[in-house]
Design a protein that fits this description.
- It is a single chain.
- The protein is of the alpha/beta class.
- It has a single domain, classed as Rossmann fold.
- Helix content is 45%, strand content 13%.
- The chain is built from 12 helices and 9 strands.
- It has a 5-stranded parallel beta sheet, with helices on both faces. Strands 2-3 form a two-stranded antiparallel ribbon.
- It starts with a helix and ends with a helix.
């Protein structure tokens, strides 16, 4: 079982939904504009997901906490030349994405589509009914917010596995609808999440507990469930956990000017997320660049 302090730290990662929404409501979101803009035209890149896809950035460097164009989806659109349709919603769970209410305006991404009266999943499918044959790339990142309630559970493993089964059911429904509308040849790439708790050795004081539980949480529960569902629909996995150092051994050490001698995987999390700086789980601009690079590499391999 995860120790109480370790559990609370792990909870930071998976309970970020509420933080995102509150920050968005307090600080506003740069995605809302009163100016009328010309309708977007394809070919399109369709981005689906939570705060990672929305490009959420905490209050840093004089910026408010808000969804920003730092996000990997914006970088992918820029590098591919595709028109971005970003159906992201900061703080949303996979289940709510498919079955819940529309995303609130403050949680929507910069330049995102107009809200509808339906769930985000239904809005995506309705849009694809009109533009499915114009889509050339799809990315999906959902599920990290669904298991947050398991952190304080007496049996967090059973709870997490149960919640991930619900994620699988809803992602299966969403991906089935997307695949039916874009066809078998359009690449769909599914992402997972970085294990930010591997940066704990860089923090002072170092939180109680070790990395064993967090590695089990990601590598044996969350990631396999996502990958299994992705593969069912011909979706390739972009392994963000690995790309952010999650599979590096604990004894691979590096001398850090700021944190001293720490595991290389901790240094990578510090560089690629705001976790060491602000205890915030979201990627930095460099982290989003790394994710975009990973997605494009996966896409190139399957082309």
């Amino acid at each position: 079982m995860i120790a109480n302090k370790s559990r609370k730290t792990l909870g930071v990662l998976l309970s970020s939904a509420a933080v995102i929404l509150v920050l968005g409501l307090l600080g506003g979101c740069s995605g809302e504009s009163k100016e009328k803009v010309a309708p977007k035209k394809g070919p399109y890149y369709l981005s689906i997901g939570d705060s990672y896809a929305a490009g959420f950035r905490p209050a840093v460097d004089g910026h408010d906490a808000e969804n920003s164009t730092d996000g990997f989806a914006f970088k992918i659109a820029s590098q591919t030349g595709l028109t971005l349709m970003n159906y992201a919603c900061s703080g949303i769970t996979a289940v709510d994405y498919v079955e819940g209410a529309p995303c609130v305006p403050t949680a929507r991404p910069v330049g995102g589509p107009e809200p509808t009266d339906s769930s985000e999943g239904d809005a995506v499918l309705a849009w694809l009914d009109k533009h499915g044959d114009e889509v050339e790339l799809v990315t999906v990142i959902l599920g990290g917010n669904d298991v947050q309630g398991c952190i304080e559970a007496a049996d967090w493993r059973t709870c997490s596995k149960s919640e991930m089964k619900r994620v699988q059911v809803t992602l299966d429904q969403l991906l089935s609808g997307i695949r039916a509308r874009v066809g078998d040849s359009v690449p769909i790439i599914g992402l997972n999440y970085p294990n930010v708790l591997l940066a704990n050795p860089a923090l002072s004081p170092v939180p109680d507990g070790d990395a064993t539980e967090s590695i089990e949480f990601f590598n044996e529960i969350i990631n396999p469930a996502l990958k299994e569902t992705y593969e069912k629909h011909g979706v390739k996995t972009a392994d963000v956990t690995a790309a952010f150092g999650g599979n590096l051994p604990a004894d691979d050490m590096v001398d850090s000017e700021e944190f001293g001698t720490i595991p290389r995987r901790a240094e990578q999390i510090c560089q690629l997320t705001y976790y060491c700086q602000l205890r915030d789980v979201h990627p930095t601009n460099e982290g989003h660049r790394r994710i975009a690079e990973l997605v494009l590499k996966v896409n190139q391999k399957q082309s």
